[in-house]
From TrEMBL:
Keywords, sorted A to Z: Membrane, Transmembrane, Transmembrane helix
The protein's name in its UniProt record: YdbS-like PH domain-containing protein
Protein's organism: Geobacillus thermodenitrificans (strain NG80-2)
Transmembrane parts of this sequence: 43-62, 175-196, 222-245, 353-371
Claim: Transmembrane helix is one of the keywords in the record: yes
Superkingdom in the source lineage: Bacteria
Alphabetized InterPro entries for the sequence: UCP026631, YdbS-like_PH
Domain YdbS-like PH: 61-140, 253-328, 394-471
Length: 480
């Protein structure tokens, strides 16, 4: 086995990332420590920290080696404490390939290798800079090892392993629409706030707060509101650009028993999701996308965050017409049936859905209306609006059951429909509070994956919930 080192661009990106993390805290330390009386001695500790960061990054690159033979992948790393890891090819369940700006300039890619049983959200092995030819050889050796282990049929020709034509792509118009309707503005605001919170010694927050409070008390609410709206629109614009870069060149293909997803403009990313690790299918419909007849399709898989999203979640279609969802999912996952008939919730559950949002809105709305009277009386309109939204959530919720599949649907602002095969379910829980028992209602919760990605519907008829629970108890021998 020949030991290899990563491309030097891995060292550059690692050092750059570490420097980015320490530069701002060091700047704060220098400014706060000098107390307005700057001296060159104040730079000694920051310079030592920078030197240590650079040297540690270089040594980490030198001490990181990898290699593979016909059956295993081996990785050694660690500057002072050497860690050796050997991974059999049979345990490798997913490979995602990322091409960032630095990797594309150097002609290399970043490889995330995920195995069965690793911690969700963390890749088992990450090779930060590997040539494309090496990645192709590694993938070929992994496929050959798996074929030998599974004793595959000898007449499977090479063409069968080639990628099929795209099953789904995003046009330029759809990329733009997906970016506009994805939101993300609050994520940008949170990131900016986290950045500014580190500058507490440089920005006089107390004085700013006093000025804002004085402006508010001096009837400058409109100015503050306009500034807040402009900041939110700016954050929304940044989020749109980020999402357009993320969803550009999006394509879904199927390669035998693997779903291959490629996306990205500045950073090209390829995600391979083995069909055997897919635990369920989720259809998301935000109220805004429903107006245009679009939805989002994601896969629940037994693994980490392959595409940078939440652990166990991979986006299959960021934006797709609802009438195309069934055909696309069936082409990728023939076992799943998306054309199901939902059972609605009983009529006696409607009042609970109407009152539920009022429980936590009533007191703050009444207080705000009283404090800001007389104009605050307009806030009382929020209460009937909340009750109306509760009715919409009641009408949207439902469940469907077949011999081998459970489907749960809930939500209205963001309606989520989860399709789960019986053999993939980890558990089903039926619970009822005292108030639900009075109305003969119950809550159904179904979980997949060992760490429990779950879906639930509240206020199902008690007898229906019991039927779903009994369905889970039946032996799964009828599933083939």
């Amino acid at each position: 086995m020949n030991k290899r080192r990563l491309h030097p661009v891995a060292m550059v990106t690692r050092v750059g990332r570490e420097l980015k993390n320490v530069l701002l805290p060091l700047l704060v330390v220098v400014v706060a420590g000098s107390g307005g009386d700057f001296s060159w001695r104040d730079l000694v500790v920051p310079l030592l920290v920078l030197a240590y960061t650079i040297v540690a990054g270089i040594l980490s690159w030198v001490r990181f080696t990898y290699g593979w033979d016909d059956q295993t992948l081996q990785v050694e790393k660690g500057v002072f404490v050497r860690k050796k890891r050997t991974i059999p090819f049979e345990r490798i369940q997913g490979i995602s390939i990322t091409e960032g700006i630095w990797q594309r300039l150097a002609g290399v890619v970043k490889v995330h290798i995920e195995t069965a049983g690793n911690v969700p959200g963390e890749a088992e092995v990450t090779l930060a800079a590997v040539s494309r030819e090496e990645v192709r050889r590694l993938q070929r050796d992994i496929e050959q090892a798996k074929e030998q282990a599974e004793e595959s049929n000898p007449w499977n020709d090479q063409e069968k392993r080639l990628l099929s034509p795209p099953l789904f792509t995003l046009s330029v118009k759809e990329v733009w629409l997906a970016a506009v309707t994805s939101g993300g503005a609050f994520g940008v605001v949170a990131a900016v706030w986290a950045f500014l919170s580190q500058l507490g010694d440089l920005i006089p927050y107390e004085a700013l707060f006093r000025n804002v409070q004085a402006t508010w008390n001096g009837h400058g609410r409109w100015y503050i509101g306009i500034i807040g709206l402009v900041a939110l629109l700016a954050a929304y614009g940044v989020a749109i650009v980020q999402n357009m870069i993320r969803f550009a060149s999006f394509a879904v293909r199927k390669q035998e028993d693997t779903i291959v997803i490629t996306r990205g403009w500045l950073e090209r990313k390829t995600v391979s999701v083995p069909i055997g690790r897919v635990q369920g299918v989720m259809i998301h419909e935000s109220w805004l996308r429903r107006l245009f007849g679009y939805a989002t399709v994601s896969l629940i898989h037994a693994g980490g965050a392959l595409d940078g999203g939440p652990p166990g979640d991979v986006v299959l279609c960021p934006l797709v017409k609802k009438e195309r969802v069934s055909s696309i999912v069936h082409a990728c996952l023939p076992e799943y049936d998306l054309d199901v008939t939902f059972h609605p919730l009983p009529e006696r559950a409607k009042i609970r859905y109407m009152l539920r949002p009022l429980y936590w809105l009533m007191v703050p709305v009444l207080l705000a209306a009283y404090i800001e009277r007389p104009w605050g009386a307009g806030l009382l309109l929020v209460l009937p609006l909340a009750a109306w939204i509760g009715v919409r959530r009641y009408r949207a919720a439902g469940w469907a059951l077949s011999s081998r599949q459970l489907t749960l649907r809930s939500g209205w602002f963001r309606q989520t429909t989860t399709y789960m095969l019986k053999r993939r379910l980890q558990s089903i829980e039926v619970s009822a509070t005292w108030w639900q028992k009075r109305k003969r209602l119950a809550t159904i919760s179904a979980a997949v994956m060992p760490l429990g990605t779950s879906a639930r519907v509240v206020d199902v008829d008690g007898q229906d919930a019991a039927a779903v629970y009994r369905w889970m108890q039946v032996e799964r021998k009828d599933e083939t």
